[in-house]
Design a protein that fits this description.
about 550 residues, mainly alpha, Cytochrome Bc1 Complex, Chain D, domain 2, three-stranded antiparallel beta sheet
């Protein structure tokens, strides 16, 4: 039977009516994607007749279209399996459960963090895909809560999801930790980091010496060195004398808690002195010496724990956090029932009319590296996200922003020093965004719908942005940096609005929210990874969403 569109159907009925001269009353309803007409011939009862409303509602047609689109885009849905194959080849072994568990304990234990009130888990929570529980991160001087009621001075950006980072060739919002080969599994060109590590600490030669084979094993060396995140400012303003590298503005954060932060070394940086002090603390812990000794024979034989061991333990835990088996993957592998009709239509828009895939790529290689089916090309772009900026001060924010009003984030320019890179940020991977409480580098949007609308009409969204209406926390709604300088640098791909109908928009949201979500990332699964206690005996974080799940179970 030939499919007839709604308008054609009505014309056909009306035409037949006029030819026969009969009087017919027609009522129409749209039910379950079908056009239902109640036809009432003169003097007779109503007779319901159902027809398909549009071709797009035919599941078989949707399936064939989407299968063809995914094949053409090079999307296989097999990246989870490919990851494990590549990782075993990279490490020369499967994931080591003991090493991964050691990394898990370090993730949640504050002992090795000099301020000793924050660690990886404070900003990368199991309740949010091991990403931020806040739209913008809160590091040191926090209230030990992780979730909506976390309090303390803001950092500068939102902590990204750690889930699936083992497949990323570049990390952080400005891509500052990256594999020079464009492949996180390939250290043949070494791994590039900013000063003071530069291209030296993780050069290929040094990677061979220290058996660093994956980018995550290198990246794990960095968070403990960050003052605003975990190290704190204790001792940086002794006797009220300002630290020469920080200046007087940061004296207010020297609260005397935790361990003192060591002075810079000959490079002018504190990174390595902080790492070494953290190692002194770990090596003084019998519990950690025992745990490290179970996976590193040299420690068991009496050698000290070193930071390359620390990095490998953290990375091993992160290797267990690859969750890339979403409905879109199941569909691509042949399960046509894995996605709803709305999600399938949204996927077709994503790869087609909405043009999302131009930046949120699923295959191929950009100038940064391989997409690895992560729904990003990892390139840095200006997408004119509104510039929300907390005020600077105790309990407010511990980062001095840039620009004339100290209310701007210059993005990639901070790393390259090139003004052409101003306001550029990494194209965000889109998998598992359903568990995120904020979007973009600064969490300016907390609703996925608003984040997608911004992409569809950037200039209108940016110029009409209202932080209160956007729903960001009150402390992030008090000031905005200028938007016109950002719009002047807007990426060419986002210059023209994209128009979608209401249903198309809803379908696109459904695909991004549900079609890209691996259910294993939900809090009820990942919260099980948060330990009730840690080897140091220090208080563990209170994960609000995890506690809610526990209460619901009880």
């Amino acid at each position: 039977m030939r499919k007839i569109r709604t308008g054609q159907l009505l014309l056909l009925i009306l035409g037949n009516t006029m030819q026969t001269g009969r009087v017919i009353a027609i009522s129409t309803l749209l039910l379950a994607g079908a056009l239902v007409l109640l036809v009432r011939p003169s003097g007779g009862p109503g007779v319901p007749v159902a027809y398909a409303a549009t071709n797009d509602n035919d599941d078989g047609n949707l399936d064939s279209k989407l299968a063809a689109v995914l094949a053409n885009a090079g999307f296989t849905g097999n990246i989870q399996q490919i990851f494990h194959e590549r990782l075993e080849a990279n490490l020369g072994r499967p994931i080591n459960p003991k090493l991964a568990n050691l990394g898990r304990l370090l993730w949640f234990d504050k002992l090795h963090s000099l301020h000793q009130d924050n660690t990886c888990g404070g900003c990368h929570s199991p309740s949010n895909g091991f990403g931020d529980s806040q739209p913008m991160a809160i590091g040191v001087q926090n209230n030990n809560l992780v979730g909506p009621h976390r309090a303390g001075p803001r950092n500068q950006r939102r902590s990204p999801l750690v889930v699936n980072t083992a497949l990323y060739p570049a990390m952080m919002w400005n891509g500052r930790f990256n594999s020079l080969s464009g492949d996180p599994f390939n250290n043949s060109n070494g791994f590039r980091f900013p000063f003071p590590e530069d291209d030296v600490r993780f050069s290929f030669a040094n990677d061979v010496i220290h058996h660093v084979t994956h980018l995550l094993q290198a990246q794990a060396h960095m968070p403990p060195t960050e003052l605003i995140e975990v190290a704190g400012f204790t001792g940086t303003c002794p006797g009220g004398v300002p630290d020469p590298t920080l200046g007087p503005a940061f004296c207010q954060f020297d609260d005397g808690k935790g361990q003192t932060v060591p002075l810079p070394d000959g490079t002018g940086s504190r990174n390595e002195p902080i790492r070494q002090k953290g190692l002194v603390i770990l090596n003084a812990s019998p519990a950690y010496r025992k745990l490290f000794g179970e996976v590193f024979p040299e420690v068991k034989a009496g050698a000290p724990i070193d930071f390359f061991m620390f990095g490998k333990a953290i990375a091993e835990f992160e290797f267990t956090l690859v969750f890339a088996n979403a409905p879109i993957d199941e569909f691509a592998r042949g399960d046509r029932d894995a996605m709803t009709a709305s999600e399938k239509r949204g996927a077709l828009l994503f790869f087609g009319e909405a043009k999302c895939v131009q930046c949120h790529a699923v295959s191929g290689r950009s100038g940064v590296g391989e997409s690895n089916e992560m729904f990003t090309d990892f390139e840095e772009r200006v997408i004119a996200v509104p510039q929300i900026a907390p005020f600077f001060g105790v309990g407010k924010g511990n980062v001095i922003f840039e620009g004339p009003g100290l209310d701007e984030d210059f993005g990639l320019e901070e790393i390259t020093g090139n003004q052409a890179d101003r306001y550029k940020f990494r194209t965000a991977p889109l998998r598992n965004l359903a568990v995120s409480p904020g979007f973009f580098h600064n969490g300016a949007f907390i609703r996925l719908e608003d984040a997608i609308r911004h992409h569809l009409n950037v200039k209108k969204s940016a110029r009409n942005y209202n932080a209160v209406k956007a729903g960001v926390p009150a402390d992030l709604a008090q000031r905005l940096g200028p938007i016109e300088p950002v719009l002047q640098r807007l990426d060419p791909l986002l210059q023209s609005p994209i128009h979608l109908t209401d249903r198309e928009f809803d379908d696109l949201v459904a695909f991004v929210r549900n079609g890209l979500l691996d259910k294993r990332v939900k809090p009820e699964n990942l919260c099980k990874l948060a330990p009730a206690s840690v080897p140091s005996g220090l208080p563990v974080f209170q994960f609000e969403a995890c506690q809610k799940d526990k209460d619901d179970d009880d």
